[in-house]
């Protein structure tokens, strides 16, 4: 342990500005429209891969402020108690609500899974994407934007939201409302990473 160390190797958090840089490199093909919606909803809701691909049309509630996604079951909710996650209208061109609507409209999806596979000819299937597909899509997209795909994983969206929210000054209570963490202790590593440059001592000296 002393020789090799005990620090865990963690995937990089895909923070907001990095996510926007990735989205800038997308085009107008069906797969681009889908991937924009997938990445933005995954980030805004701080979803795990399995949660993100598990949503159906019936889980989306349209409200004036945006949408409410009904998460029926998750890793930490095996009994299916469920919870609601609000996704508000965004203030930038990368509004998650608008891009999800664009995808559903383009794909003519009115029932069944929100996230669907697309073949190389651009044909949209009825089949639901897998959690592993989310990780593959993320790696492909970050690589296209010039990032090292080996440093990112399907968890990078969830970690990126939490870190970005801390840096933006959001309360840990509100962050946990999105992530589903049960306590601030479980959220602590994102708070620590997000606050690295807040009132940094070196910044006061140099």
Write a brief caption for the model.
It contains nine helices and five strands. The chain is α+β, with helices and mostly antiparallel strands and 206 residues long.
Protein described:
The structure is a single chain. With 206 residues, the chain is an alpha+beta fold. The chain has one domain: hpI Integrase, Chain A (Orthogonal Bundle). Helix content is 44%, strand content 12%. The protein has 9 helices and 5 strands, in the order αααβββαββααααα. The protein has helices at 16-24, 30-44, 49-53, 96-107, 131-144, 156-167, 172-179, 184-194, 201-205, and strands spanning 60-63, 66-71, 83-88, 116-118, 124-128. A hairpin with a 5-residue loop joins strand 4 and strand 5 (124-128). Helix 2 (30-44) runs antiparallel to helix 4 (96-107) and helix 6 (156-167) crosses helix 8 (184-194). The relative contact order is 0.17. The mean pLDDT is 87.
């Amino acid at each position: 342990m002393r020789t090799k160390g005990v620090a865990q190797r963690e995937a990089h958090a895909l923070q907001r500005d990095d996510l926007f840089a990735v989205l800038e490199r997308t085009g107008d093909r069906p797969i681009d429209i889908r991937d924009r919606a997938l990445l933005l909803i995954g980030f805004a809701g701080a979803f795990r891969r399995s949660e993100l691909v598990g949503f159906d049309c019936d889980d989306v509630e349209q409200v004036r402020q945006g949408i409410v996604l009904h998460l029926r079951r998750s890793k930490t909710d095996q009994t299916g108690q469920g919870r609601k996650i609000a996704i508000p209208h965004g203030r930038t061109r990368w509004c998650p609500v608008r891009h999800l609507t664009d995808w559903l409209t383009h794909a003519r999806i009115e029932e069944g899974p929100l996230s669907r596979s697309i073949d190389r000819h651009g044909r949209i299937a009825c089949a639901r994407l897998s959690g592993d597909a989310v990780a593959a899509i993320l790696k492909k997209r970050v690589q296209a934007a010039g990032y090292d795909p080996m440093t990112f994983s399907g968890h990078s969206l969830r970690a990126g939201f939490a870190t970005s929210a801390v840096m933006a000054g959001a309360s840990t209570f509100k962050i946990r409302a999105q992530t589903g963490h049960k306590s601030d202790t479980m959220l602590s590593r994102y708070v620590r990473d997000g606050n690295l440059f807040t009132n940094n001592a070196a910044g006061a000296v140099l």
